[in-house]
Design brief:
Length: 79
């Protein structure tokens, strides 16, 4: 029996032992699935790329303004 793991696809230094769950609406999940398939990436890898790309946008919104927003309001703020 071989219990060895294959090579890690995560970038060097990424914390792999504590994954973070992300809840998506069906349309959002479908879009993520389509993008990950187009780029031949896992959904987790694509979600990480989207997170990294969007983080600077979210950081520009003052914390007070972010605290009471739902995802739809936040989406409009960023567009």
């Amino acid at each position: 029996m071989n219990n060895t793991k294959g090579p890690s696809r995560a970038p060097i230094g990424v914390v792999t032992g504590k994954p973070i769950s992300m809840r998506l609406l069906p349309d959002e999940r479908h879009a993520l699935m389509r993008l990950s398939k187009d780029e031949n990436r896992s959904m987790a890898s694509m979600a990480r790329r989207a997170y990294l790309a969007g983080l600077p946008l979210v950081a520009r919104i003052p914390a007070k303004a972010r605290s009471g927003q739902n995802s739809q309001t936040a989406k409009k703020e960023l567009l």
